[in-house]
Write a structure and sequence with these properties.
With about 650 residues, the protein is mostly helical. The chain contains 31 helices and no strands. It is about 75% helix and about 0% strand. Helix 3 crosses helix 4, helix 15 runs antiparallel to helix 16 and helix 28 packs antiparallel against helix 29.
Length: about 650
């Protein structure tokens, strides 16, 4: 009976969409799936029959198990590597497979990722025959686990896969497979902050590409030179024995047809990962250079997934380099392209939204940033549930945006809730000394400090405990940053600056001054004297001198420097100018320079008027952006004097 049911399911599933719509009601197909899932739940011995039906039905059956909450039987099915392999190679199953996978894990099968990775390693050890199927499976499985956010297991799979590639004769075919593995590994290792391992992968990639270490260059000519070098490095032999395999297998890896697997496209993907690695290591100059190389190497044959990733990397790099014009164009194009190709409910669209929110936050469009972050978080929750590193990242980003938004109102409880949720998720998924905890703890510490300062006098008994908890979080974040980056790093400098602000609130003024001076020195050395981060720390030190240490002359010089940086980078509507203008009014009042105090009071009132005008301005609505032809986008971004 089951075989008959499966036969008719196959007939319905194979029908064209038009035929199914006109002759086979969708409800009938769904009803058959529901009854099949209920039957399999009761008669587990008959599940082997699923192995003989088409892939499209297998995925539909498993997705119906998810919808019907048959998660125990779904976990048993997905834990078998043979079954999972089949689903990985079915092109239309990725998003639904992600949802099934994460739902099973949230249901209690948190061993699933590790079990699949271990099964793959065992198969590699036992298999003495052809390595090509194992390499293809490793690329697929490692890429899937990476996209699902299970980075430790993804790295185990991809390291084994890379070892298999390197054990083969180093023909062009296997060089390319090794680089494909390096591409995925770099993505995993950067996201999971495995910097020593990522440095090894980066060096291997450069060597295989024929590039020199520390090679940089932001020009279009430099980018095309990278492509030419890669062409030469990857075309040193004929590889006749693998030529037919190369096209089918490499296209199956998601590389696209025709030019999509050319050396230029491969170089673009790797340059994008190089950019991401340098970005998380806070080397923003290198991140920007590599991302622009990647952008220049894109062409009309590049698959949309790769194009979106490159646009996102370029956009983020431009944001931190304070090139907001190009940044806005890039992140909006990434959002538009992701929405057009993947739809508004796909995690790749949500990832593009997170970068758009980051851009909006940095251009001082805080309200819009919060709205974008909230949409991204909602999408990620629908795919990954509530126990995913992707969700934790989005909650942390939203918490910080809410903290900035509510800085004047003091209503930080929603921000605190998101920050604490992010920390709980991360603590459940990574070791206690993992760097991913540093940023989330930093955000919560900032929020607690402001809540403590806003606590009414009648409730002041709670203030010391909040400030002490904030100090503990800041110190933990600083220790994690020092362990990962050392002292000479922008992230470490930010943690010093945050401690400086906290110590000012705790009335430890000498300690506060020491922290601010450390932060300024590191940022100036790494970023230059006129960077936004330097201006931020200079303004914080000015506040300390002005309000707590009676060093008003020194505070005046610092405020003026902070204002000059803000006006140069953001213009006269920038939100941070309020605190510098207020500070100068206080400084000049204390110094009895009343004309200067009146001058900055007028500037403050003018600033308020400009901010009111800004509230009426609208950012482009999500979904309204049109996808620009790639050649036009490249021409605009690589135009002279851009």
């Amino acid at each position: 009976m089951l075989k008959i049911l499966l036969y008719y399911l196959a007939k319905m599933a194979d029908a064209s969409s038009t035929r199914r719509a006109s002759k086979i009601p969708q409800s009938l197909y769904d009803l058959c799936l529901t009854n099949l899932v209920n039957y399999l739940q009761k008669s587990k011995c008959d599940r082997n029959e699923l192995r003989s039906i088409p892939d499209v039905i297998v995925m539909d059956v498993y997705y119906k198990m998810l919808q019907e909450k048959r998660l125990c039987i779904l976990a048993a099915e997905l834990s078998e590597l043979d079954i999972f392999e089949r689903l990985l190679f079915y092109a239309d199953s990725q998003l639904r497979l992600l949802q099934c996978f994460q739902a099973v894990i949230e249901h209690g099968s948190n061993w699933l990722s590790t079990e699949l990775a271990t099964a793959y390693l065992s198969r590699c050890e036992a298999n003495k025959g052809s390595r090509d199927p194992l390499i293809q499976l490793g690329l697929r499985l490692g890429g899937f686990l990476n996209e699902a956010g299970w980075y430790a297991d993804a790295q185990r799979v991809l390291l084994q896969c890379r070892e298999l590639c390197q054990a083969q004769p180093q023909t062009t075919y296997y060089k390319r497979l090794t680089l494909e593995c390096c591409h995925r590994l770099l993505n995993t290792q950067s996201a999971y902050c495995c910097f020593p391992a990522a440095a090894e992968t980066y060096a291997l990639s450069l060597r295989l590409l024929g590039l020199q270490p520390h090679s940089r260059g932001e020009s279009l000519r430099g980018a095309l030179a990278v492509g030419d070098t890669c062409d030469k490095a990857l075309q040193t032999d004929c590889d006749d024995s693998h030529r037919s395999v190369t096209h089918s297998n490499l296209v199956a890896c998601g590389c696209g047809a025709r030019r999509g697997w050319g050396a230029g496209a491969l170089a673009a993907r790797l340059c994008k990962e190089f950019s991401a690695l340098f970005f998380v290591r806070c080397d923003y100059g290198a991140a920007h250079a590599w991302s622009m190389r990647a952008l220049a190497l894109l062409d009309d044959w590049t698959p949309p997934k790769i194009t979106v990733e490159v646009l996102r990397a370029c956009g983020k790099a431009c944001v931190v380099k304070r090139r907001f014009g190009p940044a806005g164009l890039l992140v909006r194009q990434a959002v538009a392209l992701a929405r057009a190709h993947f739809g508004p409910h796909h995690p790749r669209y949500a990832a593009a939204l997170l970068d758009y929110g980051f851009y909006l936050l940095n251009i001082d469009s805080i309200t819009h940033s919060v709205a974008v972050y909230e949409e991204a978080l909602g999408t990620l929750r629908r795919v990954f549930g509530r126990s995913s590193l992707h969700v934790a990242t989005a909650q942390e980003d939203l918490a910080y945006a809410l903290y900035v938004l509510e800085y004047s109102s003091g209503l930080f409880y929603k921000a605190r809730e998101h920050a604490e949720r992010a920390i709980r998720i991360i603590e459940n998924l990574v070791p206690p000394d993992h760097l991913l905890l540093a940023s989330a703890k930093r955000v919560k510490a900032l929020i607690l400090e402001e809540i403590a300062l806003d606590t009414p006098g009648g409730q002041e008994n709670s203030e010391p405990s909040l400030l002490e908890e904030s100090e503990s979080l800041h110190k933990a974040a600083l220790a994690l940053s020092m362990m990962a980056f050392g002292e000479k790093n922008v992230q470490t400098a930010k943690h010093y600056g945050n401690l400086g602000r906290l110590y000012q609130s705790m009335q430890k003024f000498q300690d506060a001054e020491a922290m601010h001076l450390k932060a300024i020195a590191i940022k100036e050395e790494l970023l230059g004297a006129e960077d936004y981060e330097v201006g931020l720390s200079v303004g914080h030190l000015a506040s300390l001198y002005n309000y707590h240490m009676n060093m008003h002359v020194a505070a005046e010089k610092l405020y003026l420097r902070s204002i000059a940086i803000s006006l140069k980078l953001f213009g006269e509507r920038y939100s941070g100018l309020e605190y510098d203008y207020r500070g100068l009014v206080h400084v000049f009042t204390k110094l009895k320079r009343h004309e200067s105090a009146a001058h900055y009071d007028r500037l403050l009132q003018h600033w308020h008027a400009l901010r009111e005008e800004s509230k009426a301005e609208q950012q482009p609505a999500l979904g309204s952006e049109q996808v620009m032809p790639l050649a036009e986008l490249q021409a605009r971004l690589f135009a002279p004097n851009d």
